[in-house]
Amino acid sequence: MTPASVTDSPDPVSLVERVSMLAFQADSMPLAMLATEVDGARHAAIACGHFQGAAILQAISAALERGERSVLIGAWLDVLRSAVLPGRFDLRSRDSHISSSAFQRIG
How far is CA 82 from the centre of its chain? Predict the structure, then answer.
């Protein structure tokens, strides 16, 4: 994966590509590298104004700090991908994503 310092950009398309790559390679990454990439993606999400993506990345980071490396990380990455892949960063999409994420975690 490309180092976080190279790909930091306030470009929403770059964020989508970064999240897709992160989700694809997460299982094969060493824990320290995964944590670094998650942190870099969180900073990129904040720079793009994609705060729901940043919040999900913060939850992933917290799980990694607790030593989680299981289905939980995969589930959070799925929620993250569904948040950023549409490429919509407006308030209406944020509200609908929050509702659907809550439903996915309950159901």
Answer: 9
